[in-house]
Amino acid sequence: MAEDQQVRARLEGKLAELLRRSGAIEDDLRGPLEADSEEQAVNLADDEALAGVDDVLQHEIGEIRQALLRLESGTYGICAACGGAIQSARLEALPYATRCIECA
Length: 104
What we know:
The chain has three helices and no strands. It is an all-alpha fold and about 100 residues long. It has one domain. Helix 1 packs antiparallel against helix 2. It is elongated and about 60 Å long. The mean pLDDT is about 90.
């Protein structure tokens, strides 16, 4: 059970960090455009890149939330494809993995 608490703490810590980063990006994207048209072009290009980063963050946030649900239901660490255990090294590297390395 202590291991579950460690996993939960790790996932929740990662989730909090991702939410903070995503919030900062979203705040930046809501900012006003510069009056200068050249600056606007640069800002729009930057905003497009930031939006792409935010999309990636949102995907990872969703994956971590799903991992927390699997932890609650007792299915965390069980491969969705074969039903075997997902290796701890894989979960350490990718804490929201849903498949073992063989099935991935």
